[in-house]
Amino acid sequence: MRSEAGAPAEVRKTPVTPVQVTGTVLTTRRVDAYHALTVVAPGIAERFRPGHFVGVAVGGTQTSMLTRRAFFVHDVKPDYGGTVEFVFSVSGPGTAWLADRRARDTLDLVGPLGRPFPLPRDPVTCVLVGAEHGSATLFTVADALQRRGCRVDFVLGAASADRVFGALRARRMGETTTLTTEDGSLGMRGRVTDVLPGVIADVRADAVYACGPMPMLHGVTTVAVEFDIPVQVAVEERMACGIGVCMTCVLPVIGDDGVTRMVRSCVEGPVFRGERVRFDDVGTIPFDALGAPGGGTRNAG
Amino acid sequence: MPVDMRTYLGHVELVNPVTTAAGCAASGSELAQFFDLARIGALTTRSITMAPRAGRPTPRMAETPSGMLNAVGLQGPGVDAFLERELPWLAQRGVRTVVSIGGGTVAEYTALARRLTDAPGVTAVEVNLSCPNIEDRGRVFARDGAASAEVIASVRSVMRYDVPVVAKLSPDVMDIVSVARACVDGGADALSMINNPLGMSIDTEAMRPVLAAVTGGLSGPAVRPLAVRCVWQVHAALPSVPIIGMGGVLTGRDAFEFILAGACVVAVGTALFHDPYACLRILRELEEILAARGFHRLADAVGLAHRPPGASTRHRIDLEESSL
User: Fold this and answer.
1) DSSP assignment of B3-68
2) What is the pLDDT of residue A16?
3) What is the pLDDT of residue A237?
4) A18 neighbors A38 (Cβ within 8 angstroms)
5) According to a count of CB atoms within 10 Å of the terminal CB, is the N or C end of chain B lower?
6) CA atoms of A55 and A242, how far apart (whole Å)
7) B216 occurs within a structural domain
8) Does residue B178 lie in a domain region?
9) pLDDT below 50 — which residues of chain A?
10) Which residues bind FMN (chain B) (predicted)?
């Protein structure tokens, strides 16, 4: 598996060239607590690999909302030259506007963005862990893994039953599927990290893939590290541009050389090796990070 | 007939007036995925500092009505890595590069300028004066004409004679004209305005400031009227000094507004976060607007809004229009 954070200031590119497309909304649907939009975007669909995300402009042409919303791609289909589907929950005026889109409306998309999930060369057993709508990212990964002959097991969880995304599809695709809810309304009561050690032991997992909120990724990484198996996490950081120019989505990640750098989750990520992400220090500049204030460097502003 | 879009920054000719704003194009390679960077007038780098900088903690960004707040804190690789990797990469592709520099002391700016002197591929140097002055209790250089002029004079004295030095001004001052005048007296070949005014946003759910750094720079169309006012005032006071205008340029119309106010170059910043193709789209729209108004040359429109009421837009003699 590849590393994510490399030499300082190395000019890094996403493996595929993103494009900007004005896509037509094909279908909109409600999935429990979430909304899903399918958009005709051939240029993005043909370049897509599991783990990629799209940057969506919200508010129309005269919008006062200038930052793009980043969403992981849930599914791509070859219909109409290529469609992409993404899943989101309404959390502000931008996502509320998106939830009001109807079939035949147009959307401005940039994608595919980010570095996709690395896939194992050999047919191994993988546990895919998703929390909230982060689960949506995992199904294209599962598909790619299964095409390589990998065994796939799911662990999906959320606060309540209506926030567990993709349980049915996971049951269809996965060898086993374990569901958790914090209120006990579906599956086991608790969090995904409570059941994960048992699942890893039972299926003799060789690798873990995870997507969800930062504390959950932290927990999953801790479990995987205990079992000494590789873990790939896809982070959901706040972004403004998604293409690597705004420098707002950074988090501390340890590079191959052992040096911690503030790397952009949109370009160097969103997929990282879990044990390389300094989860405890997310939201801070660790004192030993390259260029940290007081680290022998001049702090100029 | 195509409009002659050439413009001058000092004596340096740019093929067109559209550039990126400092800190909005990262290393350049990110935008190069979308369009050929050599097609825009120039690319302005993020502010290069002596040492690598990790920047500010997250959250660094907050969306606000028609704008955004940012507190990135000049995250960057430091001048060594910049000269080793980023600048040669840009030079190789024929990208005209305005290198923005930031420092905490006059000596640091000077040392940076000295490092850039021998580097091939520097079209101009933009001095980011909105950095805290370590020797003046952390107050930013741009607040004070004398401090700004000291930095500019020092950078000018070590920079190659054929590389223009541009002073980037902040709108958070009592009198931007006096700071602009001080910079020009200090040797600035051109002025660039505006840097982000400081703003703040509070999360009413968490009842805490949204940004980890509490305050941040406000950008986007929300600051455009402020920016146009600054360009207008400075151009009125110093009509012969070339101005790079910026602040919330989203369309060709917005760029034209800055041109009319007196800017001969227009920088695109926050728009790049929304639309990676913004520079080329704005350039095309600006050209269409100029053509529709009957202009043959961009230079004819620079500062045109300053003409007396009732004056014609056409009969300007060549000498008069030189914002060269």
Assistant:
1) -B--EEETTEEESSSEEEPTTSSTTSHHHHTTS-GGGSSBEEPPPB-SS-B--PPSP-EEEETTEE
2) 81
3) 83
4) no
5) N
6) 6
7) no
8) yes
9) 1-14, 296-301
10) 128, 168, 194, 220, 247-248, 269-270
Give A223-280 pLDDT, tens digit per residue.
999 999 999 999 988 888 999 999 999 999 999 999 999 999 999 989 999 999 999 9
- A2 at interface of B, judged by CB pairs closer than 8 A: no
Mark the ranges of chain B whose per-residue pLDDT is less than 70. Answer: 313-324
Domain assignment of residue A9, yes or no:
no
Number of domains chain A is built from = 1
C-alpha to C-alpha distance for A89 and A49, rounded to whole angstroms: 23
Distances (CA, A) of B33 to A66, A244, B29, B188: 21, 11, 7, 34
Range of the domain at B185: 7-55+74-208+221-306
The answer to the question of whether B248 is labelled as a binding residue is yes
Residue-level pLDDT at B138: 83
Q: Does A299 touch chain B (CB under 8 A)?
A: yes
pLDDT at A189: 92
Residue B299 lies in a domain: yes
Q: pTM of the prediction? A: 0.89
> Would you call B52 and A64 a contact, using CB atoms and an 8 Å cutoff?
no
- Residue B178: both structure tokens together: 């006096």
* Residues of A in Cβ contact (< 8 Å) with B65: 64
> Is B131 one of the annotated active-site residues of the chain?
yes
Our count of domains for chain B comes to 1
Give the pLDDT of residue B324. 56
Would you state the pLDDT for residue A271?
Answer: 95
Residue A36 lies in a domain: yes
DSSP of A43-110: HHHHH--TT-EEEE--S-TT-S--SPEEEEEEEEE-GGG-EEEEEE---SHHHHHHHT--TT-EEEEE
pLDDT digits (tens, 9 = 90+) for A201-219: 999 999 999 999 999 999 9
Chain A residues within an 8 Å CB radius of B267: none
Quick check: is A246 in a domain? no
CATH number, domain of B34, equals 3.20.20.70
pLDDT tens, residue by residue, A233-242:
999 888 889 9
Q: Which two tokens stand for residue B6?
A: 């050439």
Q: Does A267 touch chain B (CB under 8 A)?
A: yes
User: What are the DSSP E strand ranges found in chain B?
Assistant: 7-9, 12-14, 18-20, 43-44, 61-64, 67-70, 97-101, 124-128, 132-133, 139-140, 165-168, 190-193, 198-200, 202-203, 208-209, 215-219, 243-246, 265-268
Per-residue pLDDT at A238: 83
What's the CA gap between B47 and B64, in Å, rounded?
24
With respect to residue A24, please indicate whether it lies within any of the assigned structural domains. Answer: yes
Structural domain for A33, as ranges: 19-113
Catalytic residue among B24, B131, B183, B264: B131
- pLDDT value at position B323? 59
Residue A9 confidence (pLDDT) = 35
B11 belongs to a structural domain: yes
* Complex-level ipTM beyond the 0.90 threshold: no
CATH no. for residue A53? 2.40.30.10
A301, B277: Cβ pair inside 8 Å?
A: no
**What confidence score (pLDDT) does residue A90 get?**
93
Measure CB to CB from residue A245 to each of B25, B54, B102 and give the nearest one: B25
Please report the residues numbered 126 through 145 in chain A whose beta carbons come closer than 8 angstroms to any beta carbon of chain B.
none
> In 3D, which of B61, B86, B63 has the Cα closest to residue B76?
B86
- Quick one: closest CA in A to B75, which residue? A247
